[in-house]
Specification:
74% helix
Length: 292
């Protein structure tokens, strides 16, 4: 169980972005064999990305084991607490990244390239970029965009540039939310934990959350009203799901700025109204895309 904990399986929920292309390219409609193949390839990409992400989490935990020891929650992580040695953790990381690269290459060489690029970017993040204000959050958002593109590459479909921009703006909002939660939780110790937290302020992050949330909604509206989107789905009704998008983003922002959750993943997994909102949006999107 200790070795499983260093993989952070709860964070694999972030890799659901891999399935965006599967849904929005209408690959769930068609002959059963074709649908099954597309779902299988998307699942394969999800597993490969999850393994690669776990390897990066381990590398990051090894790198940050000293600073994590002053964090009220991260200090109990196996590596920071000393329950898993650096050597053992390194072996587990290698055991994750190897099958991730091999498996993704078997699915598609391009997918392997994306996962390799993601791993390289995240290593750079762990070893320096996370200490650069604003760029730290932008890098996280790019990582999510790579997940969305990976999903499209895995099933061999075109992904709308608007969908990539939507992913970037939404996950930039999530990254700023994480910084806001860290400051609320650590308070006076925030700069000692991460240097950039001394440069962010609650007021500045509130402004960044407002801007990135509005950008995410506008990008989704532009995608929903784009002529290519309307032609592909045969309807313009996707725009009406924006009301649910607004609710989810506003609730997420409100709970984050109140300091009720220190980590966006915890909010996503624990806040029932937010979960219901996301579920409603997903059901509406599938209904509009496949059943109009």
């Amino acid at each position: 169980m200790t070795l499983l904990a260093i993989l952070r399986p709860v964070h694999w929920v972030k890799n659901v972005f891999v399935f965006a292309a599967l849904v929005f390219s209408r690959q769930l409609a068609g002959p059963f064999e074709q649908v099954l193949a597309a779902v299988g390839r998307a699942m394969g990409a999800f597993v490969c990305f999850s393994l690669a992400a776990s390897a990066i989490y381990i590398i990051n935990d090894i790198r940050d084991r000293k600073t994590d020891s002053i964090h009220p929650e991260r200090r109990i992580r196996p590596i920071a607490a000393g329950r898993v040695g650096v050597g053992t953790a390194g072996i587990v990381a290698a055991a994750c990244i190897a099958p991730a690269l091999v498996g993704s290459f078997l699915l598609s060489p391009a997918l392997a390239g994306i996962i390799l690029a993601y791993a390289a970017l995240m290593v750079l993040y762990s070893f320096g970029l996370k200490h650069v204000m604003i760029l730290d959050c932008a890098v996280i958002a790019v990582g999510f965009c790579l997940r969305a593109v990976a999903g499209a590459v895995a099933i061999g479909v075109f992904i709308s540039p608007w969908l990539v921009v939507c992913t970037f703006s939404l996950t930039l909002f999530l990254a700023f939310s994480k910084r806001r939660g860290e400051i609320a939780q650590l308070q006076a110790n925030s700069e000692a934990f991460r240097r950039t937290l001394g440069e962010y302020t609650p007021e500045l992050l509130a402004h960044m959350l407002d801007v990135s949330s509005v950008l995410a909604v506008i990008c989704f509206l532009m995608y929903a009203m784009d002529s290519e989107t309307i032609e592909r789905f045969g309807t313009d009704r996707l725009v009406y799901t924006s009301f649910v998008v607004l609710y989810c983003i506003f609730r997420f922002s409100a709970l984050t700025q109140k300091g009720q959750y220190s980590d966006p993943v915890k909010l996503i997994l624990r806040d029932r109204p937010f979960q219901i909102g996301v579920l409603i949006w997903v059901v509406l999107c599938i209904g509009i895309i496949y059943c109009h």
